[in-house]
Amino acid sequence: xxxxxxxxxxxxxxxxxxxxxxxxxxxxxxxxxxxxxxxxxxxxxxxxxxxxxxxxxxxxxxxxxxxxxxxxxxxxxxxxxxxxxxxxxxxxxxxxxxxxxxxxxxxxxxxxxxxxxxxxxxxxxxxxxxxxxxxxxxxxxxxxxxxxxxxxxxxxxxxxxxxxxxxxxxxxxxxxxxxxxxxxxxxxxxxxxxxxxxxxxxxxxxxxxxxxxxxxxxxxxxxxxxxxxxxxxxxxxxxxxxxxxxxxxxxxxxxxxxxxxxxxxxxxxxxxxxxxxxxxxxxxxxxxxxxxxxxxxxxxxxxxxxxxxxxxxxxxxxxxxxxxxxxxxxxxxxxxxxxxxxxxxxxxxxxxxxxxxxxxxxxxxxxxxxxxxxxxxxxxxxxxxxxxxxxxxxxxxxxxxxxxxxxxxxxxxxxxxxxxxxxxxxxxxxxxxxxxxxxxxxxxxxxxxxxxxxxxxxxxxxxxxxxxxxxxxxxxxxxxxxxxxxxxxxxxxxxxxxxxxxxxxxxxxxxxxxxxxxxxxxxxxxxxxxxxxxxxxxxxxxxxx
Length: 545
Ligand SMILES: *Cc1c(COP(=O)(O)O)cnc(C)c1O
Known about the structure:
It is a single chain. By secondary structure, the chain is α/β, with parallel strands linked by helices. It has 16 helices and 16 strands. It has a domain at 104-403: Aspartate Aminotransferase, domain 2 (3-Layer(aba) Sandwich). Strands 4-10-9-8-7-5-6 form a 7-stranded mixed beta sheet, with helices on both faces. It has a 5-stranded mixed beta sheet with strand order 3-13-16-12-11, covered by helices on one side. α5 (101-113) runs antiparallel to α13. The site of pyridoxal-5'-phosphate has 12 residues, from α7. Belongs to the group II decarboxylase family.
């Protein structure tokens, strides 16, 4: 076993074994650093992703008969990193994080002691960190920390799933025995994330019982449409169970009016004698902006520009309402810049968990001893990684102000990007409100977004503009190694003048997510788009001739 022990860290803390592992870590950092190039998106050269790439991988794969030396193992791993996208200043596509140093260290510590977040006896560090970040963030968003609870889980999608589970159990406490009632309905905006779609499918509620509500100009849910659709469900004998309030849509950062939503659900509950309707704030994208809930815009201590303040003041009014939701989520691995997966699901009232908790007799091997007092038998996972450690580390290292700086910069850069792109490129329109994301759409000739948005274009015209943008996305995609813009095939739906079939709008996306995406870089982003648009228009002209 002596040979096998060499594959493990020491048990006595001897320096020799410590230096050994540190030397590998140092080697990893050095080699990755050597692959970094601030003018490119990728770490070194991308492998050739030929059509048979994964087939070749499948054919060659085999567990080695004898273990490799550690150096060779590390080299094999570093080979996988070559060509990896790296979230530097050239990445403006999606909400992908560049994990901050504190979160990397928090993760490392968690791995070194390898706590199991299931039970504090098996993972005391993560348990305390989880309780602590739950309290910290409850206070930040305005939940009562003595009543609320929370736990880290599998992403913003996991939070939606678990919130739906809580909603079902609260509405029908016997559902764990009898199954889910078949006349319950869920509501979400038509631009909400597909998390709810998957969740109604997996809980057995069924997709037919998920009602999509129209959005308004600002990509937030149209509450009149919500009320109408809920009333219709009630009139037909159905029961509204759950509303998903999207706080920052994934593509356009639309923010639902949670206070208005709450008013409507409460009215309907009273009028129709319904159980409380569950509201989950899907704040996976926008939740970090609750860090401005208490910011003093009058005195503006961090001295943000007026335009940035205007956006953030507006956010403050909307995000403060998250406290009205029954649950919400912080996806730190989006705008909070931590490694995957670091999502904290926050529940307003820990009473909700009693409907889904396991009886001690169902968990014979953990949680039912005199020792240990934190046992998360109510989560859908059994063993859980202690990702609260990375969240805790980030909160300590950034503080509220650090996150405010980071989050305000996303806005600042977007404002500058919009101004520069509008000035430099004639045939483009910005198609959402100022936020960490700018969606923009090009036109074969002059831009006619206002007409298009107001439904004055024909179906054929819209389709042609969509195709124009789709093809241009391919042109940009070829050079994603230089600057990587995002795009979407359904920014929103618009009814054309000659049909009542609504048409999805294609758009490009600029997502300022890296701390290295700064004002100084704007001219480069815009020049890249301008150049490629000129090239695209020219080649198109040649083809058309
Ligand atoms: C990203 C996102 C999700 C899914 O979150 P994951 O952490 O990727 O599981 C859910 N809802 C919204 C609005 C999102 O933007």
